């Protein structure tokens, strides 16, 4: 039977809000705190500021259990476990910016009945340093590392059905309480020390990013040698030791986490005196991969000056409106630098994209985007792009080039419409 322990969540961004709604679904009252007063007001008014499948419904269903406030005292007064889900973005040096985490630590009062439970992704050693800081300030707070592994686009399902739960703690009541909270989910538990829990999170993200950069390099070699990376990935992935996931070649990984966490792990290693050679390549391959589409377009169109390029999808992956580190940002900047004009369509990310891409034209529909376009580039594999009427697309385009940056389209359907299809790593 689910424990009804009241919970505090500090930071109601992506992870904070999904976690709060997930804990509410498990029957808990949740006090959600954020410094962003406008966000809190919107949440109080019933608005969900993030687009994520199932999240709006979950927040609505548990509105009575979700309490939103800017005052941390509301969480401290009701809950002994305070989950921290504030952002840890990259700094110019590539290290994680822990200023929001430190602000939370600094705001904690002296207390021997509360625990901070770290959900934010932090460098290894952060827990130890926060414990030292608490001790220095004479605060008897407990500390637990409980990294989050959810993916955007399937965040609610991932939170409620995780592959594993990792709890790093000092073997005290706080660790026991966190283990108890997650017990109803029935997931395998890794209970360990704080530093190891912190490293699990960074290593898992870095490994997944490595898998993507690896298959992208295989794709690039496929293009030189006539092999098809989809066939190669299928053949590799059936080996249980490799597995089929994260072997989708494309125009590089983006998002708020892989780029920053790979860089943070590289810096963490460097700061500790170890040169993490492999991660340098993972990062470099990813940077180059985002630009390879330019070469493909040049091959088909000659120069790009004066050419009109339509981008299908802008978000860093489908099922989200998140534009953080999206490959579309690099791609559109490169296209414009080479003299092309860019027109784009994304089913949900347009508002944020308009802010980040002031010189891009936005179309209301896919077909609106291709009107007069010399080439189309699929950037984000929203399923609706696969269903397009390619004969209609061809009739509206000025040119014939379709670059499938995610290998998500049906090449035969595109070619049957008289268009020139090129994917990533699909033969020479
Ligand atoms: N986005 C994702 O899919 C995942 C993110 N993570 C990690 O979780 C952490 C949070 O990520 P997101 O939710 O994406 O960040 P976010 O940027 O969407 O949300 C952070 C929230 O914290 C609030 N905040 C900042 N300082 C605060 C303070 N002192 N007190 C209260 N609230 C404060 C901000 O106003 C914002 O609403 C990061 O460390 C990230 O690496 C982990 C797994 C998945
Ligand atoms: O720490 C985090 O924030 C999260 O980072 C990723 O989740 P997320 O960034 O939401 O999305 P992913 O599905 O992992 O995709 C990341 C990027 O990799 C790209 N990708 C993914 C898979 C693949 O085979 N190929 C590929 O290019 C996607 O297009 C996207 O740009 C991890 O998958 C989560 O486990 C982790 O919790």
Question: Which secondary structure elements does this structure contain, and how are they paired or packed?
Answer:
Elements: E1 7-10, H1 14-25, E2 30-33, H2 37-44, H3 55-61, E3 66-69, H4 72-78, E4 81-84, H5 99-107, E5 115-118, H6 126-136, E6 142-145, H7 155-160, E7 165-168, H8 173-182, E8 189-192, H9 194-225, H10 229-237, H11 258-271, H12 277-301, E9 308-312, H13 327-337, E10 341-345, H14 350-356, E11 361-362, H15 366-370, E12 375-378, H16 390-396, E13 401-404, H17 411-416, E14 420-422
Parallel strand pairs: 1-2, 1-4, 2-3, 4-5, 5-6, 7-8, 9-10, 9-12, 10-11, 12-13, 13-14
Helix pairs in contact: 9-11, 9-12, 11-12, 12-13
Can you describe this structure in just a few lines?
It is an enzyme of class 1 (oxidoreductase). With 428 residues, the protein is of the alpha/beta class.
């Amino acid at each position: 039977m689910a424990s009804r322990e009241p919970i505090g969540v500090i930071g109601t961004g992506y992870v904070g809000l999904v976690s709060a709604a997930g804990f509410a679904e498990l029957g808990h009252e949740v006090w959600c705190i954020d410094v962003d007063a406008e966000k809190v007001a919107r949440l109080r008014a019933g608005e969900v500021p993030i687009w994520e499948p199932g999240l709006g419904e979950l927040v609505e269903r548990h509105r009575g259990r979700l309490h939103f406030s800017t005052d941390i005292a509301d969480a401290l007064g009701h809950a002994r476990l305070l989950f921290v889900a504030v952002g840890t973005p990259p700094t110019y040096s590539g290290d994680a910016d822990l200023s929001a985490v430190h602000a939370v630590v600094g705001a904690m009062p002296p207390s021997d009945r509360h625990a901070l439970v770290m959900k934010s992704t932090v460098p290894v050693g952060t827990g130890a340093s926060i414990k030292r800081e608490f001790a220095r300030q004479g605060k008897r707070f407990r500390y637990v590392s409980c990294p989050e592994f959810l993916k955007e686009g399937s965040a609610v399902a991932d939170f409620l059905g995780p592959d594993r739960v990792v709890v790093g703690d000092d073997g005290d009541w706080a660790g026991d309480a966190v283990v108890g909270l997650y017990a109803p989910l029935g997931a395998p538990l890794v209970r360990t020390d704080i530093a190891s829990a912190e490293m699990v999170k960074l290593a898992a993200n870095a490994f997944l990013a490595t898998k993507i950069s690896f298959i992208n390099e295989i794709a690039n070699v496929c293009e030189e040698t006539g092999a098809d990376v989809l066939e190669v990935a299928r053949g590799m992935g059936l080996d249980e030791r490799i597995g089929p996931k994260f072997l989708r070649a494309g125009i590089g990984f983006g998002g708020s986490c892989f780029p920053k966490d790979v860089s943070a792990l590289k810096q963490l290693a460097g700061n500790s005196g170890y040169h993490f050679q492999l991660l340098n390549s993972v990062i470099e391959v990813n940077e180059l991969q985002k630009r390879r589409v330019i070469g493909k377009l040049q091959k088909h169109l000659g120069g790009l000056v004066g050419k009109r390029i339509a981008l299908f999808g802008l978000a860093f992956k489908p099922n989200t409106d998140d534009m953080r580190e999206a490959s579309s940002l690099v791609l559109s900047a490169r296209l414009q630098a080479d003299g092309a004009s860019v027109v784009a369509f994304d089913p949900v990310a347009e508002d944020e994209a308009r802010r980040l891409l002031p010189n891009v034209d936005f179309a209301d529909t896919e077909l609106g985007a291709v009107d007069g376009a010399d080439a189309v580039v699929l950037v984000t594999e929203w399923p609706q792009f696969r269903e397009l009427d390619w004969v209609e697309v061809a009739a509206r385009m000025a040119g014939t080039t379709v670059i499938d940056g995610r290998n998500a389209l049906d090449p035969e359907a595109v070619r049957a419409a008289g268009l020139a299809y090129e994917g990533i790593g699909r033969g020479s």
